[in-house]
Write a structure and sequence with these properties.
It contains 7 helices and 5 strands, in the order ββααααβαβαβα. The chain has helices at 29-36, 40-55, 62-72, 81-96, 103-112, 129-134, 147-150, and strands at residues 10-13, 20-21, 98-99, 116-121, 143-146. The chain has a 3-stranded parallel β-sheet with strand order 1-4-5. Strands 2-3 form a two-stranded antiparallel sheet. α1 crosses α2 (40-55), α2 packs across α3 and α3 packs across α4 (81-96). The longest helix has 16 residues, at 40-55.
Length: 159
């Protein structure tokens, strides 16, 4: 089926809480704080402080963000600590991410109707393209602009 005679040629979606959701992304933070021997409040503060840089790619990888959190907490990144912490968080968070039940069928229907489909999302490397790939969303998208890849976040015009 072709799209109706309409000036709309493309539809752009956000990723989180639009196409996919993560029910309790902060649920693992108490475990990480305890593992590091810091208070949850201190962990959350330094995690939040790293968020702007991670979101626009100045901390280009999840491991780089973890190293920044450790540095902010005054902890050494010894013996691969940042890689281990990142792997723990990745495994837990990825197990939580779900595609909304209507996402795939909606994207397929829009594509069948001739619309181009774009994605613009503020996210970090941990939760961006790797989730698109493992959830098989990439083939349904004509273009993606992920903040950590393009170096800009919404609502800025460059993204």
């Amino acid at each position: 089926m072709q799209r109706p005679n309409s000036p709309i040629r493309a539809i752009i979606f956000d990723l989180y809480n639009t196409l996919i959701y993560e029910p309790d992304f902060e649920g693992y933070f108490p475990f990480l704080a305890e593992l590091l021997g810091v208070t949850l409040a201190d962990y959350n503060t330094h995690r939040q402080n790293s968020s702007p840089d991670a979101t626009v790619g100045r901390l280009p990888t999840a491991e780089a963000r973890t190293r920044a959190i450790l540095a902010g907490l005054g902890l050494a990144d010894a013996d691969g600590l940042s890689e281990r912490l990142t792997a723990l968080e990745r495994d837990w968070r990825w197990s939580q991410v779900q595609v909304y039940s209507a996402t795939i069928s909606t994207l397929q229907t829009l594509r069948e109707r001739g619309y181009l489909i774009g994605l613009v999302s503020d996210c970090t490397e941990l939760m961006g393209r790797p989730n698109l790939e493992r959830l098989d969303l990439i083939p349904l998208l004509d273009a993606t602009a992920l903040s950590y890849e393009v170096g800009h976040a919404k609502p800025g015009a460059p993204i």
